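User: I'm new to structure prediction. If I give you an amino acid sequence, what do you actually give back? Let's try with this one:
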Amino acid sequence: MQNKEEITIEKIIKKMKENNRKSDSNLIQRAYDFAKINHKEQKRMSGEEYIIHPLSVAYILADLELDDSTIASALLHDVVEDTDITHEDIVNEFGEEIADMVDGVTKLRKNSIFKYRRTASRKL
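Assistant: Good question. You get back a string of structure tokens that encode the predicted 3D arrangement of the chain. For your 124 residues, that looks like this:
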């Protein structure tokens, strides 16, 4: 079995700087710190730290050369759904644009889970 390469915030920031030397590494670092602090000791069902998934998503999007707000949103996308943080908290910390992106990801996930469950139950 292959070991997955560890994705770190430093690798994401480096990738963003390679894509755009004017990338706002402070915003990306703040989003990571906010997510990491708010996910605290949460673990995924696999046992890995909760922050691993948002880091992986952010790295994929950085590799696609998406913008700083998108990367920050990727890092934050589980915070509203899985912690006590609210949409308003994200607005206050990161602005309306990023908060709306985070909400959009949550709505996409809810709709696809609902569709999957409905389709799966019909097959039974």
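You can read the tokens as a compact description of the fold. Here is one thing that stands out. Confidence is low (pLDDT under 50) at residues 116-124.
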